[in-house]
Design goal:
The chain is α+β, with helices and mostly antiparallel strands. The protein contains 6 helices and 14 strands. It has one domain: 60s Ribosomal Protein L30, Chain: A. It has a 7-stranded mixed β-sheet with strand order 6-5-4-3-8-1-14, with no helix packed on it. Strands 9, 10, 11, 12 and 13 form a 5-stranded antiparallel β-sheet that branches. Strands 2-7 form a two-stranded antiparallel sheet.
Length: 248
């Protein structure tokens, strides 16, 4: 029996390992962030074990998170790119190990709406999840930041972001990272595209709002597994979620 057990166990472990590349790791849910769950118990050190590309925010909504090539960045309220320590906490984040399945180039007068439309036409199926890595030079780009929130956390996400800081760049090269989710994701995550930006010179970053470019290289990684970990915190357990859907 032992001679049979170990090879089978090894195959199972190898099978689990090979499947990890297709997992999106999602800490908390968008509905929670929209209802004041702005403090989590997941550290950046823990999050690094689950992905090298992604996005999110930090406890108290203290800046936007950008994850690229395994490096984690925090866009401060002043627009500076900082490197958070491994003990820094996040209330909401989405990461994955990026293994590119395909790529294509967009040419012409490219804007965020046209990127969404053309990318949707080129994706193999709109029923799967995708991680994106998009590079190029941006003639114009507008990114949003996040202001740290104070208790009581009683504002919706749209209300919290109504007065968000805005950062603008022109003729700047950089990378957009993020995800595309099918509409059935509901209140768990943003449906469609959710992208964050970081410039090559680390002078600009944040949540993508608008852009204009002449050429962009789009790479994507199809994701078949989606793992959600909920915060084991008092603030999550006691949160009263509103019935209104998240609109972000």
């Amino acid at each position: 029996m032992k001679k049979i057990f170990f090879p089978v166990l090894l195959l199972l472990l190898l099978g689990c390992s090979s499947g990890n590349k297709d997992i999106i790791f999602h800490y908390s849910v968008l509905k929670a962030l929209d209802n004041g769950v702005l403090e989590g118990d997941m550290t950046i050190g823990q999050l690094k074990k689950h992905g090298d590309l992604g996005l999110g925010t930090y406890n108290h909504m203290d800046g936007e998170m950008v994850v690229l090539d395994g490096s984690f960045y925090r866009i401060s309220q002043e627009g500076k790119l900082l490197n958070p320590g491994d003990d820094t906490l996040t209330p909401y984040s989405i990461v994955t190990f990026y293994n590119e399945d395909a790529k294509f180039t967009l040419e012409g007068d490219i804007t965020y709406p046209s990127l969404k439309a053309q990318a949707a036409e080129k994706l193999p199926s709109l029923n799967y999840f995708y991680a994106f890595r998009i590079t190029g030079e941006f003639e114009y780009i507008k990114c949003g930041g996040a202001n740290a929130q104070n208790k009581p956390y009683n504002r919706s996400l749209n209300e919290m972001l109504a007065d968000r800081p805005v950062y603008v760049g022109r003729n700047i090269t950089g990378t957009l990272v993020g995800f595309w989710c099918p509409a059935y994701i509901g209140d768990i995550n943003t449906a469609g595209f959710h992208l964050h930006f970081i410039s090559d010179d680390h002078t600009l970053g944040g949540h993508l709002m608008e852009f204009r470019a002449g050429s962009l290289n789009l790479g994507y990684d199809i994701k078949f597994d989606y793992k959600i970990i909920l915060p084991d915190t008092e603030i999550f357990r006691d949160a009263k979620f509103r019935n209104e859907p998240v609109n972000y």
